[in-house]
Design a protein that fits this description.
Elements (H helix, E strand, L loop, with lengths): L1 H20 L7 H13 L5 H16 L5 H15 L6 H14 L5 H16 L5 H9 L1 H8 L1 H16 L4 H9 L1 H6 L3 H16 L4 H16 L4 H4 L1 E3 L5 E3 L3 H6 L8 E3 L2 H5 L1
Antiparallel strand pairs: 1-2, 2-3
Helix pairs in contact: 1-2, 1-3, 2-4, 3-5, 5-7, 7-10, 8-9, 10-13
């Protein structure tokens, strides 16, 4: 019964945490018994079971309970198979969604070598606009996961494609994550490539795209500031935070520090 398998998946994370805390007594129980079940249910015929398996996997990754070898040898190959060009549409949409969500929880090397090439392919998926939209909505997170070099070499060309997509929802998603993408690039790329691209979005024929671009204008401009003097920085949760420069705080100890947190456009849209 699918309901039984779904319920089982919901119990996997607490069992895994218990086994981790009791590892001297159960040194290999999780890897031998539970992890294979999670991987198998990622391809279950029932979508509710698959969803429960995906949620369980993300919790396990977030809790750092999955070994690096299992990630590279079991989890990533399954996701690559599910997101292949000839894969079923429903499986592909689910796979790209889980790839985007887990990217921030994996090592940069794993993401860049195993998942980034497939992500770039999915950004150009001409069959399913849902796949491209998921890629566009999570583009900033992928850029942050792989760093500046891979972003400028591989991801920026794909970002240009998505910003020019015929579906306005794609362009809107790009506008919403523009600050996160810009923050990962060098000042020269921001000035010479991203600025003209942003002007295109702010002049888009669709008013929803223009509105999203105007909402991202301030955060995008903030990425040009020098963090050491402006006090602007991006937190791990994707928010843009502003703190008063140290010299201003020290100059007048009677004044409270001006600590303001501004949600990035990509974070607020989520």
């Amino acid at each position: 019964e699918p309901t039984v398998r779904t319920e089982l998946m919901e119990q996997i994370p607490p069992i895994a945490i218990f086994l981790q805390e009791s590892r001297p007594k159960f040194p290999t129980a999780f890897f031998e018994y539970l992890m294979p079940i999670v991987v198998r249910y990622l391809t279950d015929v029932n979508n509710q079971v698959r969803k429960a398996g995906q949620e369980a996997l993300l919790i396990l990754l977030e809790q750092d309970l999955v070994a690096q070898s299992d990630i590279e040898n079991k989890v990533c190959p399954i996701l690559l198979d599910l997101s292949a060009p000839d894969s079923d549409d429903e499986y592909k949409v689910e796979a790209v969604n889980i790839i985007c969500k887990m990217a921030s929880m994996l090592s940069r090397t794993t993401v860049e070598h195993m998942l980034l090439p497939r992500f770039c392919e999915l950004c150009s998926d001409g069959k399913l606009f849902q796949v491209r939209k998921i890629c566009a909505a999570n583009f900033g997170d992928i850029c942050n996961a792989v760093g500046q070099e891979a972003t400028e070499r591989l991801l920026i060309p794909k970002f240009f494609e998505l910003c020019s997509d015929s579906v306005w929802g794609m362009r809107k998603a790009c506008a919403e994550c523009f600050m996160a993408v810009s923050y990962t690039t060098s000042p020269e790329v921001r000035r010479s490539k991203l600025s003209p691209l942003f002007i295109n979005l702010i002049s888009d024929t669709c008013r929803w795209v223009r509105q999203a671009a105007f909402q991202s204008l301030g955060p995008f401009i903030s990425t040009f500031a020098n963090p050491s003097s402006a006090g602007l920085y991006i937190r791990e949760d994707g928010t843009l935070s502003i703190r008063a420069p140290a010299q201003d705080v020290n100059s007048n100890s009677c004044q409270p520090s001006n600590n303001i947190t501004v949600m990035s456009s990509s974070a607020s849209a989520a």
